[in-house]
Amino acid sequence: MQIKSAEFLISNSKVDKCPQQRLPEYAFIGRSNVGKSSLINMLTQRKNLAKTSGRPGKTQLINHFTINSNWFLVDLPGYGYARVSKKAKKEFQKFITNYFEQREQLISAFVLIDCRHEPQPIDLEFMEYLGEHQIPFSIIFTKADKLKPMALKRNIEVYKATLLEGVWLEMPNYFVSSATNTTGRDEILAYIDGINEGMKE
Ligand code: GDP
Question: How is 137-152 classified by DSSP, letter by letter?
Answer without folding.
Answer: EEEEEE-GGGS-HHHH
